[in-house]
């Protein structure tokens, strides 16, 4: 098993060697492609904000009040912006979810389309509108600041060349007139290049985090709060009952069945083979032994022994070794996991790999286990023909129910022709 590579920019920034990976270039591509989107939105908003600001400034300095046509224009245009923002936000959000893939490999679920009228009555519609306004206001201001810093660094780097072709060149806070005087500033500029690379990555990561926060959540959290609490209580009750059953089977039924099998075996030794009781006794002994195997499988199904002995990463590695499809496991887990989370993740991987072997017609698969703060992320991907559908009885519906019982969520991407990606996010707070 190897350390899992980061799946999003924020995680990549925390890794050593960030500057020599593809992530800085992905961050730069994300920022560059943001510029036209934010620019168009900013210009559209400026058409309303500029006259409004000028009118307020004029009133503040005792100037004449704004004319009636200007007031009508501002009222109509302002109302149009507020009224159309949820509709415009649909197109902007769709584009931004797609662009988010430049710096974040995790899928972003889109809200269910409920018609145009629902854009004004759902939280998702107003979150998308809020993100559109944020993209038109805060992002351009941040980009201008970063652009000034980049221009300053470029000026420091090229200062020796400029000083050799002109007199009295202003470099940041000083004036130089020879390349020798400008060399220290150029050295500082070169040393600041890695800092700027990291800064651009931080800017892109912050923007992506806001996009995921506003565009990735679906559903009304207020309406679902009680459902979530009830589901948590049910999951806790299930876990307690599972432990009780496991303890009763392991400490009660299993020893008695072992003793019964032993007594039947001893009885077979005392009964002659030609005795009428020999055959029924042998059948009873074999049935007892078979029942012991079945009971061990039941106990194993409640909580696999490999999970208790090897931990989640080791147990998943064992599942990968038993799969008929070659499976690569990447695990990046630090610290213990809650038992419910660990058990749920194990059965998710087990069921998903079983589906790959039976339905996907894949040549290889990959399992990725990562811990992102208080969330355990499990991803199972394969290169099969895709087209997985929870409604066709492939076990995905039951898998989603198991994940939901652990207060997690399951995301599925399986276009026709493949590949298929199953992503499960489970809480792992201690």
UniProtKB/TrEMBL annotation:
One of its GO terms (cellular component) is membrane. It comes from the Bacteria. Residues 340-430 form the Histidine kinase/HSP90-like ATPase domain. Keywords: ATP-binding, Kinase, Membrane, Nucleotide-binding, Phosphoprotein, Transferase, Transmembrane, Transmembrane helix, Two-component regulatory system. Pfam families: HATPase_c, HisKA_3, Sensor. It comes from Micromonospora endolithica. It is an enzyme of class 2 (transferase). One of its GO terms (molecular function) is phosphorelay sensor kinase activity. The chain crosses the membrane at residues 28-50, 70-95, 141-162, 182-205. This is histidine kinase. Its EC number is 2.7.13.3. The lineage of its organism: Bacteria, Bacillati, Actinomycetota, Actinomycetes, Micromonosporales. It catalyses: ATP + protein L-histidine = ADP + protein N-phospho-L-histidine.
């Amino acid at each position: 098993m190897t350390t899992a590579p980061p799946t999003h920019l924020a995680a990549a920034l925390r890794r050593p060697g960030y500057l020599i990976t593809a992530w800085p270039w992905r961050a730069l591509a994300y920022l560059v492609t943001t510029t036209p989107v934010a620019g168009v939105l900013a210009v559209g908003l400026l058409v309303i904000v500029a006259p409004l600001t000028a009118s307020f400034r004029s009133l503040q300095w005792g100037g004449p009040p704004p004319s009636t046509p200007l007031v009508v224009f501002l009222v109509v245009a302002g109302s149009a912006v507020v009224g159309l923002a949820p509709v415009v936000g649909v197109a902007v959000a769709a584009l931004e979810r797609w662009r988010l893939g430049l710096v974040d490999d995790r899928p972003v679920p889109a809200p269910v389309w409920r018609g145009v009228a629902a854009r004004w009555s759902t939280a998702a519609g107003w979150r998308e509108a809020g993100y559109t306004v944020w993209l038109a206001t805060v992002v351009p201001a941040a980009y201008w600041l970063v652009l000034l810093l980049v221009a300053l660094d470029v000026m420091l780097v090229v200062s020796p060349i400029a000083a050799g072709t002109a007199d009295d060149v202003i470099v940041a806070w000083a004036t130089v007139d020879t390349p020798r005087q400008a060399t220290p500033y150029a050295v500082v500029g070169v040393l600041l290049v890695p800092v700027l690379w990291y800064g651009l990555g931080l800017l892109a990561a912050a923007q992506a985090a806001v996009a995921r926060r506003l565009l990735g959540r679906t559903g009304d959290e207020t309406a679902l709060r009680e459902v979530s609490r009830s589901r948590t209580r049910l999951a806790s009750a299930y876990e307690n009952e599972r432990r009780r059953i496991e303890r009763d089977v392991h400490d009660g039924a299993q020893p008695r069945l072992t003793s019964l099998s032993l007594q039947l075996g001893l009885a077979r030794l005392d009964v002659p083979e030609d005795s009428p009781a020999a055959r029924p006794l042998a059948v009873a002994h074999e049935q007892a032994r078979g029942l012991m195997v079945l009971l061990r499988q039941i106990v194993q199904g409640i909580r696999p022994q490999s999970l208790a002995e090897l931990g989640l990463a080791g147990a998943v590695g064992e599942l990968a070794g038993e799969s008929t499809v070659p499976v690569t496991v990447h695990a990046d887990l630090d610290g213990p996991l809650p038992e419910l989370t660990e058990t749920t993740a194990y059965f998710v991987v087990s069921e998903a790999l079983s589906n790959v072997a039976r339905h996907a017609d894949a040549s290889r698969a990959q399992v990725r286990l990562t811990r992102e703060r208080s969330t355990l992320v499990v991803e199972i991907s394969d290169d099969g023909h895709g087209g997985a559908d929870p409604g066709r009885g492939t076990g995905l519906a039951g898998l989603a129910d198991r994940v939901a019982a652990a207060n997690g969520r399951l995301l599925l991407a399986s276009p026709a022709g493949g590949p298929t990606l199953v992503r499960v996010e489970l809480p792992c707070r201690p």
